[in-house]
Amino acid sequence: MKRLFIIILFSIFFLPSCDVLQEVAKTIEEPGNLPLTEQEVVQGLKEALRISTDTAVSIVSKTNGYFRDELIKIYLPPEASQIMKYKDNTMLQAVGISGLIDDVILRMNRSAENAAKSATPIFANAIKSMTIQDAFAILNGSDTAATNYFRKKTYLQLKASFKPKISNSLNQPLVGNISAGKAWTSLTKSYNDVAAIAGWQKVTTQLDEYVTRKALNGLFLKLSLEEKAIRRDPKARVTDILRRVFGS
Question: Are the C-beta atoms of 113 and 65 separated by less than 8 Å?
């Protein structure tokens, strides 16, 4: 406000022309011409994160959000490569190993989709803690600076809050009244029984830990894509403050 007052005085006493006065008036009428304030930067970054997280969560939490998206689809844990290696073995085929594998993959993804619904308030609380310094560092950072900051500062907290929901979801009947945990137990038991006879390495992966990690990784990947869109595509800046901050 003080800046505008000085401009007006200078214009009236030293540059008394209609054209100059019109330009001053235009500047006053169009706040977009004024430099960004610290408050606007913080507000814009928080708005960007809110929109990005809301969109990312809505994408992954819908049915097939994980399962039909090859970028984030959750497959069997790396340790289960042993199962895939021997899945054509006669003894494993006899216990229906192929069907069990398909069931586990589907139910893991359904569990992630189900648990992801609770991520929004967790992200919202994390956004509130952003400082002015954080906001300017993100604004001047890379295309995924906000996502990287978000992940670095809150990943452990998100995981601690997310894992119980994943564990609970894995134990809930989601498809055909069978939970992902039960399907995994059935799969690994069927394999391990044969492995004990054949002398193969057994599979002991904790499914809730694995799915939680993969679910969060997928969520952050989607978040980074939303952030890039806001930074690069003017059409993705759906509010005035986003256009003001990211268009400057």
Answer: yes
